[in-house]
Amino acid sequence: MPLLTIPPHFRRAWQDIAAALLKWVTFGALVGGLVGLAGSVFHLALEWAAEARAACPWLLFLLPVAGLAIVSAYQLTGMADDPGTELVITAIRSGARMRLRTAPLIFLATFLTHLTGGSAGREGAALQLGGSISNALGQLLALEPEDEEVITMCGIAAGFSALFGTPLTAAVFAMEVGCVGVMHYAALVPCLLASLLAQVVAGQLGVQPTRFTFTGMPALDVEPMISILLLGILCGILANLFCRAMQLGGACGQKIGNPWLRAAAGGALVAVLSLLLGTGDYNGAGMDVIARALDGSAVPAAFLLKMGLTALTLGTGFKGGEIVPSLFVGATFGCAAAPLLGLEASFGAAAAMVGVFCGVTNSPITSILLGYELFGGTGVTALALVAAVSYMTSGYHSLYHRQKIMYSKTKVKVVDAYSSGETDE
């Protein structure tokens, strides 16, 4: 008789763990490779679009034509009512199924938006790109509904990581954004593996991770901390305003019933406003403006202009994301507001970037990790404080209408509230 015997229930438990680990390592690696490749090509295409737009300013006049092309593509493929990123949120919350055709459509539509000067980001498209590919893979493999949710999270993480080069942020964002207050830790291994592999693939294809620096980190003493708290409050208010502006843009756009007329009119108006402003700062994602704000230089009204043009662009049928515009809004606002609070402009830009991102996504843990990865760990405690205050003061609005906020932001209790503001308080 052996000296050491393993009880049957322990053996079965370890067998289940080994089987789950093998399954999710396999799926995480597969999704990371596929979505990492797609996301990298997408990133490079948008970089080329930005360079082409800078070299050929006349492309701005084609913005209405691009709008017509985008609407036509969605109409012809039976995707006219596609809810975009909202469907991705639903897929990770309740197992809604996505169509693979979303991937090429969002790629093409976002490329056209950026090429012709629409004011939009890129990460919303990356979430749809990654989510649709991984969700389709889950359907192909006939996974269980709960496993489809996890593999969709992997796709979101991989798409986010391929574009930004922030694997920790991407993995946690995929798990945190669907139901605020509930983290699906069973998805941690595949999401993290997918995001890490996507970053590796992106690096091999020449995509550089997004990294910034800032100066003027204040001492964490009483007086600076009061200023940091005030900045966090302002970021929360601004985040709420940003979400409302995006909702208003969509509502106003819907007043034009014909989608082709809506897109053409919206594109023409964005083009005219850009010409009147006399700058291309508000066209495309605006990463160069973010970099300038972190150097301490920003037009005081830049955050309002970007907010308005992004709401107009996305509200009239163009495609893209809202996260990079929220970083733009935060950076330019923080750069302008920080000196009024006794803080350095560069630090204010960095802190408000993280704070506004947190307020519009309701994802505090993700936001802290974003601050850590974007800035190499510099001043992460101060950035975290701004994010925390912004989360509390931003209210129950969100960029994602189908995001669910499970707990009150001010009391330790379940509210079962949607981000539209419907709470039991």
How would you describe this structure to a colleague?
By secondary structure, the chain is mostly helical. Helices cover 67% and strands 3% of the residues. The chain is built from 16 helices and three strands. It has a three-stranded mixed sheet with strand order 1-2-3, with no helix packed on it. A hairpin with a 6-residue loop joins strand 2 (404-407) and strand 3. Helix 7 runs antiparallel to helix 8. It is globular. Mean pLDDT is 91; it is low at 419-425.
In short:
67% of the residues lie in helices and 3% in strands. With 425 residues, the protein is mostly helical.
Question: What is the topology?
Answer:
Layout: H1 8-55, H2 63-76, H3 85-94, H4 102-116, H5 123-140, H6 145-164, H7 167-176, E1 179-180, H8 188-204, H9 222-254, H10 259-277, H11 287-294, H12 302-315, H13 323-337, H14 345-361, H15 364-374, H16 380-393, E2 404-407, E3 414-418
Parallel strand pairs: 1-2
Antiparallel strand pairs: 2-3
Topology as a string of helices (H) and strands (E): HHHHHHHEHHHHHHHHHEE
From the N-terminal CA to the C-terminal CA, the straight-line distance is 65 Å
Largest sheet: 3 strands, mixed
Shape: globular
Total of helices = 16
Number of strands: 3
Strand order of the largest sheet: 1-2-3
- The helix content is 55-70%
- State the low-pLDDT regions, or none: 419-425
Q: What is the CA-based Rg, rounded?
A: 22 Å
- Coarse structural class: mainly alpha
